[in-house]
Amino acid sequence: MNPYFQHGHERAFGTWPLKGSELTSALETALNVGYRAIDTAQLYGNEAEVGAVLRASGLARDQLCVTTKVAPDHLAEDRFMPSVEASLRALGLDQVDVLLIHWPPADGDVVLPLRRLEQAARRGLAKHVGVSNFTAAMLHTARATLEVPVVVNQVEFHPLLDQRKLLAAAAQTGIPLSAYCSVARGEVFKYPVLDEIGRGYGKSAAQVTLRWILQKGVPVTTMSSRRANIQANFDVMDFTLSSIDMARIDALNAVGHRVVNKTRVPWAPDFD
């Protein structure tokens, strides 16, 4: 079973850019609220702190879905596996549930990093493998290259960005998407239609946005350091948006707002 579609795992708690006491407090709150899917990465510099909170929680290992990601500087053969082993030591785990390639290499040639990812799975360092920030063409390459299933492509996904091409590639390859930047770093709150729709369900604009993503079949990763927001982001399973409201939100795709681009991340691929 895909770990992101197990009960409760469709809502993950993200840990970037949290560190120190802020991370500890937020992650403890998230676990208390009910989050069991936890997302970190080598680039975040907080794997050891995440691991410490998870161990202190007393939760059984099989209750958790822990994702981490291999940094762009670690995709080469001499760095890939040592970096994964370092992540496991930092997290205090024998195996992560999901190991991702965080960003495709700058030259766009994903085949060798994908084979190293598969090797990590075959060595038992990861239960599942996936990718992040892959284009549609890269998803087709991943599907053709790997013998082990690719369980996710973690990408920017929110109502202000048209991701129909990636959704189509996900359907064609069997590699589902999951969402980061789910509220576009707050940009969605500039659009009153989300508040208006939310009032009809007794929900906030953020909750409406997350529910729209989930009804697209895309799991969400959210982050907040405020308890009220952590709770609200989790409480999105008790209502369903109508087809009319889904279409009204779909119309926001035309805005074309992308948070993560080459200005912010110079090594980003040419996104679809």
What features would you describe in this structure?
- With 272 residues, this protein is of the alpha/beta class.
- The chain has a single domain, classed as Alpha-Beta Barrel (TIM Barrel).
- Helices cover 40% and strands 15% of the residues.
- The chain has ten helices and eight strands.
- It has helices at residues 20-33, 47-57, 77-91, 111-122, 136-145, 164-173, 192-201, 205-215, 227-234, 243-250, and strands at residues 11-14, 37-39, 65-70, 96-101, 126-132, 150-156, 177-180, 220-222.
- The longest helix has 15 residues, at 77-91.
- The protein is globular.
- The two termini are 28 Å apart.
- The model has no long low-confidence stretch (mean pLDDT 97).
Topology readout:
Layout: E1 11-14, H1 20-33, E2 37-39, H2 47-57, E3 65-70, H3 77-91, E4 96-101, H4 111-122, E5 126-132, H5 136-145, E6 150-156, H6 164-173, E7 177-180, H7 192-201, H8 205-215, E8 220-222, H9 227-234, H10 243-250
Helix pairs in contact: 1-2, 1-9, 2-3, 3-4, 5-6, 7-8
Any key phrases for this structure?
single chain, 272 residues, alpha/beta, TIM Barrel, eight-stranded parallel sheet, 8 strands
State the gist of this model.
By secondary structure, this protein is an alpha/beta fold.
DSSP, total strands: 8
The percent of residues in helical segments reads 40-55%
Question: What is the CATH H-level superfamily?
Answer: NADP-dependent oxidoreductase domain
Overall mean pLDDT stands at 97
The gross shape turns out to be: globular
**Beta fraction of the residues?**
5-15%
Terminus-to-terminus distance: 28 Å
